[in-house]
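== Polypeptide entry ==
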Amino acid sequence: MQQGTLMRKVKSKSWKKQRYFKLQDDCMTIWYQSKRTGKTESAFSISDVETVREGHQSEVLQSLAEEFPPERCFTIVFYGRRGNLDLIAGSAEEAQCWVQGLRQLIKPRSLTSALASFTWIRDWFQKADKNKDGRMNFKEVQRLLKMMNVDMNEDHALRLFQDADKSESGTLEGEEFVLFYKALTQRDEVLSLFQDFSEDGKKLTLLELVDFLQQEQLEDEGTEELAMELIDKYEPSETARARHVLSADGFLMYLCSPEGSIFNPQHRVMWQDMSQPLCHYFISSSHNTYLIEDQIRGHSSIEGYIRALKRGCRCLEVDCWDGPNGEPVVYHGHTFTSKIPFREVVSTLTKYAFKVRNPSLGSGCHRWPSVGGGDVAAVWGSDGSPAPQGAYSPSTILQELKHKILLKGKKIGRLEDMLDGPEDETHDVSDDDNGAEAEEERQRMKVGGSGWGTAGSKDKETLAQVLSDCVVYCKNVSFRGFQEARSRSRPSEISSLSEAKARKLIRDAGNEFVRHNTWQLTRIYPSGMRTDSSNYSPQEMWNVGCQIVALNFQTAGMEMDLCDGLFSQNGCCGYVLKPPFMRDEETPFNPSDPGSWEGPGPITLTIQVISGQQLPKVSNSKEGAIIDPLVRVEIHGVPADQAHQETKYIENNGFNPRWDETLQFQLHVPELALVRFVVEDYDKTSRNDFVGQFTLAFANIKPGYRHIHLLSKDGTNIPPSSLFVHIRISK
């Protein structure tokens, strides 16, 4: 890879350009050179790479399958909305060299926070070392500090530099730079906390660590065993480990670890009851999954399905239409969005629907059912074979649906008639909801030459019988009010509501909506006016127990942060059990009136925002610009709990800002609350710039001194950026 390899970069069947790709000496950046022009420029950074796929695993490479064998093809997938890079090597050996090499290079991001911090500073060192001699003079150090978001007094920086320059050579190298970095990153607030519990100020004995865990971290079970585990895991000194003591360095490593995170590590794995009926869970759901841009002219891609599934989505939308040569296609009907073959979508779902997202999260991850949107409904096994009709009753529990795909859609006649015996010759079709999506539904899947359907007359709608016969579990029905639903609808049916209609029902009949969702599935979809693929807040829909709250996964922002925050628990399986009072068909709960439900009473959440560590620069900021960070804490929940507070901003310090401010919130329904931490760059004259965020359900918060590891706007990790806080929960 460092010698360089000539490969084809491909964008379409006709666009295939030869490029000379080479891994730089820093092992962090890939450069390429055009064979025609000889121009050399940066292709991408290793830190931007999410994964590498072998073979024909993109639409472009699939279209070239007859021309190039899969052994020579691979796809580099980047974080965020950046497009994939499809490459064709000259031989299978060269392709494997790059595939395996890139996979090894992107591995360090999964290591500990301390190692991530080391990797981070190493990268900056290499960028600031202008003459590439492996040493750094004071001028280069000043440049490094600016690059790292540090606006440090020149005299103080010189003093740190001279203290670390043990050889008195006027430059830092090797261990000298490590000393400089340790002095630069010394955490006074952590050292002070350490000394509060350490009798000699140099170490924590086993009993002193137990005291800290019990008194501050509120660990109440097996604290001595936990203390031993933490020493064995995070104490860097072998001598200290043998004596069962924890040094200041080990204490900091623990606080920066998953055990020291604000997110309860026991809730990262599957921890909820998975034996409840399907309607008792919130389900991670996407809208028009195939789109990766806007709703009118956007690009349709199987990448939309792959990204959604890898993000934990369990409900996907597949809009099927007649295509050329009798082959169905998937696209946003009656728009200018591009089309993709239905065959490719099904193939992609077969591969990724039950793929484990992260093996460390536990064996249950992503093996739970996927609910597919569109016009066909069935329950399929993971091998693609349909389950026997009637095999799944309306009260089927989630556990029994494991490794199955449920497709919801329209139905000719009644589901019960199909289960009882042959269907009469009828062609009445169940309607979908009113509005833009309903109009689109009325144009889909008519009986046509291919059997998949072509758009026909609006006056009389018919549906291909072969598709109707697939409907087993989730029959689409029009919603005509809660009373009619209670008297005529069945748990095997599902209604789709626009966000506007859902909001009206929440305002007018909040308690009835909650009760309805205890026994029947409800899907909410974005307004047809959101042509830019923007999102509505899912929180107000979750407040009444709506299970399938469909969002545009391609659009980053607060709404997707809430979605990721809710579903980051329970092994990221895409299912979160609703609170008990939202599973009771006689519940008095109304989110607009918390007093209607006899809960445990208001809970007080007190958050002391202490400090920040190595915050990233704002994207596209001017060279040398340093952020003025502030922290905003938002509560998303029932209307009475909606709130936000923020700290003051710290001028010119994105490296180690100190706030030491306390924020306090009252939560009336903590079971539904999500807490979002946002860091912004303060601007006096315009809107603040986004720096990082982290969102989690209140139920997953660990009290005590905790680190919050920040995420980017796209929801990806940005190590080693973090906040240090103290959390207290009281009644």
Residues 357-366, 374-394, 419-436, 438-462 have pLDDT under 50 and may be disordered. The domain at 5-107 is CATH 2.30.29.30 (PH-domain like).
